[in-house]
Design a protein that fits this description.
Shape: globular
Helix content: 25-40%
Family: Belongs to the 5'-nucleotidase family.
InterPro entries: 5'-Nucleotdase_C, 5'-Nucleotdase_C_sf, 5'-Nucleotdase_CS, 5_nucleotidase/apyrase, Calcineurin-like_PHP, Metallo-depent_PP-like, Pesterase_YunD
CATH topology of the largest domain: Purple Acid Phosphatase, chain A, domain 2
Structural class: alpha/beta
Protein name: Bifunctional metallophosphatase/5'-nucleotidase
Pfam families: 5_nucleotid_C (PF02872), Metallophos (PF00149)
Keywords: Hydrolase, Nucleotide-binding, Signal
Radius of gyration: 25 Å
CATH superfamily of the largest domain: Metallo-dependent phosphatases
Number of helices: 16
Number of domains: 2
Length: 474
């Protein structure tokens, strides 16, 4: 028997490619239906990303609707779903889905059971053929802030493999939907001979023809819908229905990737910004505040400085007087007059939460000097990932921290920093995750604030400080 699997991963809300992908998926499914060939459509996570205005405006529902429309069968989640949407938001989204969610290494911390919207293993039957799909997501410690309890993915996988082995029903094929990254996928393939296929994501790797590690095949389709994958599994009929734990299996697996350019030529559908335009219109309808003047992204000082406004906002939110942000976060200005959610989303599209760091004075000085020592290198350094959706890191701007050239000392709150005094500093979690500032993890005891992103913090701040008073609020 031949089983066909179409797979996507790490779409990150890149809906400009979706009309092409949708048409291709429909064509493939229709072909398999006409041939009476069994097939599955799966996604490996990070489909929902609020960097896209339509995802932001609909709180993720647009992706669920699109996946329902084309008929996905099984998905797992990535860190963008698990950490950028609250537990309740994700629960509602998947209550509206017509596909199953496989997720073996995340529990609801309120019940210590799997979330109601997920199954540790999803089984699918095709006549006498039975397959098991196990979902694993990247184990970020910050999941605990979203009312989840993490299970080590290897422990979770071993538990599910034992469950399959002890089951009274035979399983012919074991597939892992892995949002762990290529390094872990290779380790899993080498360690667990029970696994036939790993379909991966998270690290945005492209495996054009798949990769074989021992008995397992690893597949992946890059990022952003730039590729769509097709996997063909050929299982000998005489092998189907035999006890999986006792049979020496032979499964032929072939992997193929189609580029979005190839799919565009095939479907004759252009790349489209229609979803972005609709999302922008929805966000523009959400009026927030009425600013007395322009706040400029490229000014680091003065009353017209956007970064200074943001420092006001994060210090107000965290009840601190000290803060740090970088100019590369600010992608556009905030206009004078009525400001909308769209203005904030365009300017601060990043998936970044706030952190509050607590330092002894001597360690605060060490952190500041660590940042200043890299200032010139980081000013124009291209940055990608870790929640960042801009281009360059930019200039580091401190609030309440400065160097006194006369005394040759670092000052905080207008006074020389005292070595054994405690100081609290507000920032974004991005600085904790990037590999530049080791003092944050070593000495800062960072506390992450969930669930609001930086743009939501700024939005709430300007709504309170500059409420709409003109007819523009209608």
């Amino acid at each position: 028997m031949k089983l066909n699997i179409i797979h996507t991963n790490d779409l990150h809300g890149h809906l400009e490619n979706w009309p092409i992908i949708k048409q291709y998926l429909n064509l493939q499914k229709q072909f398999f239906i006409e041939k009476r060939a069994p097939f599955l459509l799966v996604d490996i996570g990070d489909a929902l990303d609020t960097v896209h205005p339509m995802v932001e405006a609909t709180e993720g529902m647009i992706m669920v609707d699109l996946f329902n429309e084309v008929g996905y069968d099984v998905v797992t989640i990535g860190n963008n779903e698990g950490l950028n949407f609250t537990n309740n938001q994700l629960s509602y989204l998947y209550s509206q889905s017509r596909y199953e969610v496989a997720l073996a290494n995340l529990l609801d911390s309120r019940t210590y059971n799997y979330p109601k919207w997920a199954s540790s293993i999803v089984y699918r039957d095709f006549e006498d053929l039975r397959i098991a799909l196990i979902g694993l997501t990247a184990p970020y410690a910050t999941y605990t802030l979203n009312q989840y309890e993490l299970i080590d993915p290897y422990d979770a996988l071993e538990q599910q493999l034992r469950s399959i082995q002890n089951s009274s029903r035979n399983v012919d094929v074991v597939i892992v939907l892995s949002h762990l990254g290529l390094k872990d996928d290779r380790l899993i393939a080498a360690k667990y001979p029970q696994i036939d296929l790993i379909i991966g994501g998270h690290t945005h790797h492209v495996l054009q023809d798949g990769e074989v590690v021992k008995q397992a095949t690893i597949a992946a389709a890059g990022r952003y819908g730039e590729y769509v994958g097709l996997i063909e599994l050929e299982i000998p009929d005489k092998q189907i229905g035999k006890l999986w734990r006792k049979t020496k299996r032979r499964i032929d697996i072939n992997c193929h990737l189609a580029t979005i350019e190839q799919l565009r030529d095939l479907t004759e559908i252009p790349i489209s910004d229609s979803y972005e335009l609709r999302g922008r219109q929805m966000l523009k309808s959400q009026k927030l505040a009425e600013l007395p003047h322009l706040y400029t992204a490229n000014r680091s000082e003065g009353e017209n400085s956007f970064i200074q406004l943001a420092l006001d906002a994060i210090c107000d939110k965290t009840s601190t007087t000290l803060g740090v942000l970088s100019t590369g976060l600010f992608l556009s200005d905030l206009p004078k007059g009525i400001v909308t959610q769209n203005d904030l989303h365009e300017a601060l599209p990043h998936s970044m939460h706030l952190i509050v760091m607590t330092f002894r004075g001597e360690h605060l000085i060490e952190m500041v000097e660590e940042m200043k020592s890299q200032e010139e290198d980081l000013r124009h350094r291209l940055i990608n990932g870790m929640g960042f959706r801009g281009k360059i890191f930019g200039e580091i701007i401190f609030r309440g921290i400065e160097f006194n050239s006369k005394t040759q000392e670092w000052y905080a709150e207008g006074k020389a920093i005292v070595a054994d005094r405690t100081y609290r500093v507000a920032a974004v979690d991005h600085y904790w995750f990037v590999p530049f500032f080791s003092t944050i993890a070593t000495y800062g005891s960072p506390e992450l604030l969930f669930p609001d992103f930086l743009r939501h913090i700024v939005s709430n701040y300007i709504q309170n400080k500059y409420p709409i008073t003109t007819v523009g609020k209608d």
